[in-house]
């Protein structure tokens, strides 16, 4: 049974599901609040705890319906990736699914993957 | 919020109080405006991202006295200039100068990745907005300051010659 709850805040919805050996997270709306870390950092921490508790191999984050993310939102992903990286050699993989037709996604997501190339897999999935 | 459009095509200027909830509204407007003016979705989204990041900084670091900020975006022959002006305290101006020197001091991708790694290890603000504009959107950044504490930061986007 998933401990993860749907997150809704200021035009953003984040829906987690657990399926087989993966955690799937669908983000919709925009991350443009003043301090997204207030809501997203606790969420990513819970994802990290749950992924480790269930020993899943992969966490998939679908951002295709996220029309914008500000740099403070990007930082919450950086912090999560950094935390996940620290679990090596037992780290789960993070698949960031994006749409290259959305400019911020095409530039920010592959850059994030460069923080941990063996762990973070950017996947362009055209809508 | 007041808005002025001049007789010059592809120019817009807005002046408003430093209220966070206006930023999203301005970002969407700028994207739509330049989607029409440039007929280039990618450039329009880069310009609107830069406008949003500069406005976020201005709201965070504007001085409390005489509080307002102004954004103007002008298309010239070969470039688009996004300029955000606000009043700022001297220590915030110095921080901004140092920040610009830092992000211009190396390969933009390496600087961006290093700043991400540093930010992940510290609490507080991300300070990723300016390097994001430089690296992800390919803009040049320029700072102007006045003795009265007014700060103007420009993000300048080259346009391809047709």
Keywords:
heterodimer; A: 127 residues; alpha/beta; Transcription Regulator spoIIAA; 6 strands; globular; B: 162 residues; alpha+beta; six-stranded antiparallel beta sheet; 5 helices; 46% helix
Describe the overall structure.
The complex is a heterodimer of chains A (127) and B (162). Chain A has 127 residues and is an alpha/beta fold. Chain A has helices spanning 37-53, 71-85, 103-113; strands spanning 7-9, 12-19, 22-31, 58-69, 93-98, 120-124. Chain A has a six-stranded mixed sheet, covered by helices on one side. In chain A, strand 2 (12-19) and strand 3 (22-31) form a beta hairpin. Chain B is an alpha+beta fold and 162 residues long. Chain B has five helices and six strands. Chain B has helices at 21-38, 41-61, 90-103, 108-120, 129-136; strands spanning 2-4, 11-16, 69-75, 79-87, 140-145, 150-158. A six-stranded antiparallel sheet of chain B has the order 1-2-3-4-6-5, with helices on one face. In chain B, helix 4 runs antiparallel to helix 5 (129-136). The longest helix of chain B has 21 residues, at 41-61. Classes of the chains: A alpha/beta (127), B alpha+beta (162). The interface between A and B is medium-sized, with 24 and 30 residues.
Helical element count of chain B? Answer: 5
State the total count of DSSP E strands of chain A: 6
CATH topology of chain A: Transcription Regulator spoIIAA
Percent range for β-strand residues of chain B:
15-25%
Q: Please identify the oligomeric state.
A: heterodimer
The strand count of chain B comes to 6
The pair of chains with the biggest contact is:
A-B, 24 and 30 residues
How many separate helices of chain A? 3
CATH class label of chain A: Alpha Beta
Q: Which regions of chain B are unreliable across 5 or more consecutive residues at pLDDT < 50?
A: none
Spatial arrangement of strands, main beta sheet of chain A: 1-2-3-4-5-6
């Amino acid at each position: 049974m998933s401990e993860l709850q749907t997150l809704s805040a200021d035009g953003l919805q984040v829906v987690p599901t657990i399926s087989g050996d993966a955690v799937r997270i669908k983000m919709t709306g925009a991350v443009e609040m003043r301090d997204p870390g207030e809501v997203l950092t606790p969420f990513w921490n819970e994802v990290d705890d749950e992924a480790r508790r269930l020993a899943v191999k992969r966490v998939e984050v679908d951002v295709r319906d996220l029309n914008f993310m500000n740099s403070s939102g990007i930082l919450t992903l950086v912090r999560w990736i950094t935390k996940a990286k620290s679990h090596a050699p037992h780290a789960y993989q993070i698949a960031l699914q994006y749409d290259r037709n959305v400019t911020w996604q095409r530039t920010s997501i592959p850059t994030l993957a460069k923080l941990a190339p063996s762990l973070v897999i950017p996947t362009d999935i055209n809508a | 919020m007041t808005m002025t459009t001049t007789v010059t095509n592809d120019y817009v200027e807005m002046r408003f109080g430093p209220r966070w909830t206006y930023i999203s509204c301005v970002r969407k407007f700028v994207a739509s405006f330049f989607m029409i003016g440039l007929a280039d979705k990618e450039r329009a989204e880069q310009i609107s991202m830069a406008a949003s990041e500069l406005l976020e900084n201005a709201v965070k670091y504007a001085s409390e006295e005489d509080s307002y900020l102004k954004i103007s975006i002008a298309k010239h022959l070969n470039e688009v200039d996004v300029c955000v002006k606000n009043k700022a305290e001297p220590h915030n101006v110095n921080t901004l100068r140092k920040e610009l020197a830092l992000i211009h001091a190396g390969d933009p991708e390496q600087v961006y990745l290093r700043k991400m790694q540093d930010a992940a290890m510290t609490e507080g603000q991300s300070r990723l907005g300016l390097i994001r504009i430089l690296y992800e959107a390919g803009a040049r950044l320029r700072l102007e300051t006045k003795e009265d504490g007014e700060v103007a930061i420009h993000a300048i986007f080259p346009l391809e010659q047709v």
